[in-house]
Specification:
Elements lengths: L8 E5 L11 H15 L3 E7 L2 H7 L4 E10 L2 E12 L2 E7 L1 H4 L10 H19 L5 E5 L6 H7 L5 H4 L2 E6 L7 E2 L3 H6 L4 H4 L4 E2 L2 E3 H8 L2 E4 L2 H6 L10 H6 L4 E3 L26 H16 L8 E6 L8 H5 L2 H5 L3 E6 L4 H13 L4 E4 L4 H10 L2 E4 L9 H7 L3 E5 L2 H6 L13 E3 L4 H17 L1 H13 L5 H15 L5
Bound molecules: adenosine-5'-diphosphate and alpha-D-glucopyranose.
Length: 489
């Protein structure tokens, strides 16, 4: 049976997921990995909170399956369950008007209480629908308490005890740390777990740490990040506990949804293309993007693009500290994103200072993102840390060369150009240093303007890199296989 996975049932639990709701790469993963596993014959389901955004757009498509009373600590409130099916994956939604029908997904003072409820309700839901997954696959702090709650709150039920738990860290910096009073009030857990240190963090409790301690296996979204988070520098003060569990920690790189992101069929583009007609395809999309955004239409100029949260993580201050130097080069610059005020202000200044050559679109815009990925030549992502990164994968798939810092998933997915062998699919630099980034940009521009054949080779390598879930789904299957000892039955 070695390597051959029998079909199994897996429940993905997460705070967001496409096609329903997205704030970042986690939603991309939840919208595509389950689909890829379902295609391989597994019974894969996903559970999400029923946010206002989902109700506004999808309510008519949801089937109501029932209401139960959820008891969690002092919380005693109803949860209503809904479901729908997309591409072979069943999606469940947990409704609680007060907790989830708000404008944003996270960032509220009562986030601990909201997601304590979500986690307890999803565990109760399993009993209610009488579907017992072999594995619950939890993602990030919003679902980090599930492994412990399943063990501690349902001790008498062997069906809960039989479930295995895989906990995936998408971003170690967001930890879900709350006051200890949450334990009894919202989670219904004994102080024992706090007193023995297993969930204690800074005198409070940490959902992230709990996931790391109690899951059967832990994964993160690239091999390099899996190593980085064991160090003081990247470990976000969780590195000691991660080192303790390192034998169970796997780094598995993300893929992208190659149906939703397909330059051959993308409805948002003026011209579809693949690797065979990439030059013509990119030229048409570049011209359309320039016209749409009020940039000078110029087929020859190198257009640099960013589609990102504008936060320190993404290395935006390496960029904003060198905006003048960047704009002194022969480039146009397109930035799409929202984030920290200082970064937004810098890009607003750039747009006003370099009219016709630079544009900043402040906001979240899925369609424009597609057109930027297709229309730019270089995709800038100099992150200070990057667990995986989805942006650079999409960029490569659309023939835009990534320029990245060598960290986490960026290091694992972008191979820097080697001008002697012609190998590579992008450009990269190592030090967290704005001048190193600038020099790498200058080097990339030199290739763009003076080494057309080299550039063409890079674009071809980028577009033909396998960014689908195929390879990584194999690894997840292998992980599930090891965990559940598939060959047992
Ligand atoms: P993170 O999850 O850390 O923000 P990723 O690179 O993993 O970074 O994923 C970001 C995802 O969000 C990508 O799919 C990217 O295209 C998308 N995205 C980020 N900002 C915007 C925006 N302003 N408009 C549209 N899509 C965006
Ligand atoms: C997080 C990380 C990003 C990763 C995404 C999906 O948002 O910041 O690097 O790609 O999760 O795993």
């Amino acid at each position: 049976m070695e390597g051959v996975c029998m079909a199994r049932s897996i429940l993905f639990a997460a705070g967001e997921g496409l096609p329903f709701v997205k704030t970042g790469g986690l939603a991309d993963v939840i919208g595509s990995l389950p689909k890829s596993l379902a295609k391989r014959g597994h019974d894969v389901r996903v559970v999400l909170p029923l946010y206002k955004k989902i109700i506004d757009k999808y309510y008519n498509q949801l089937e109501r399956i029932g209401t139960i009373q959820v008891h969690s600590g002092w919380i005693d409130q109803p949860a209503t369950f809904y479901k729908t099916e997309v591409d072979g994956v069943v999606y469940y939604f947990i409704e609680h008007q007060h907790y989830f029908e708000r404008d944003a997904l996270y960032g509220y003072n009562d986030d601990g209480e909201r997601f304590a409820f979500f986690q307890r309700a999803l565990l109760d839901m399993i009993y209610f629908i009488d579907w017992w997954p072999n594995i619950i696959h939890e993602n990030d702090w919003q679902t980090g308490m599930v492994p412990l709650m399943a063990k501690a709150c349902y001790q008498g039920d062997v069906r809960y005890q039989a479930i295995k738990h895989v906990y995936t860290i998408h971003n170690l910096a967001f930890q879900g740390n709350f006051g200890v009073e949450m334990l009894q009030s919202c989670l219904g857990l004994d102080y024992y777990y706090f007193d023995n240190g297993s969930i204690k963090f800074d005198n409070g409790i940490s959902f992230m740490k709990t996931g790391i301690v109690f899951a059967d296996k832990i994964t993160t979204v690239s091999p390099t990040y899996a190593n980085e988070i064991l160090t003081d520098y990247y470990g976000e003060r969780m590195n000691a506990i991660l080192r303790y569990r390192r034998d169970d920690l796997w780094g598995i790189v993300n893929g992208i949804d190659t149906v939703a992101w397909d330059p051959k069929k993308d409805k948002h583009l003026v011209k579809n293309f693949d690797v065979k007609n990439v030059a013509a395809g990119k030229a048409a999309n570049k011209a359309a993007l320039q016209a749409e955004l009020g940039l000078k239409v110029d087929k020859d100029v190198c257009v640099i693009g960013i589609v990102s949260r504008l936060t320190n993580q993404k290395g935006v201050y390496l960029i904003t500290s060198r905006l003048r130097e960047i704009m002194d080069l022969d480039v146009q610059f397109v930035v799409l994103g929202t984030g920290e005020t200082a970064a937004e202000d810098a890009f607003k200044w750039m747009e006003s200072e370099y009219k016709g050559r630079a544009v900043y679109y402040s906001g979240y815009n899925e369609e424009l993102a597609h057109r930027i990925y297709a229309g730019v030549d270089l995709f800038l992502m100099p992150s200070l840390y990057e667990p995986c990164g989805i942006g650079q994968l999409i960029a490569m798939h659309y023939g835009s060369l990534p320029l990245v810092r060598e960290t986490g998933g960026l290091k694992d997915t972008v191979q820097p150009f080697n001008e002697y062998t012609g190998e590579g699919n992008g450009f990269s630099f190592y030090a967290e240093n704005a001048d190193d980034m600038l020099h790498t940009l200058q080097y990339a521009l030199k290739q763009y303007y003076t080494n057309k054949a080299g550039w063409k080779g890079l674009v071809k390598a980028a577009m033909t890199r396998d960014v689908s879930w195929e390879a990584s789904s194999n690894v997840y299957e292998e992980l599930y296989y090891q965990l559940c000892n598939w060959s047992d039955n």
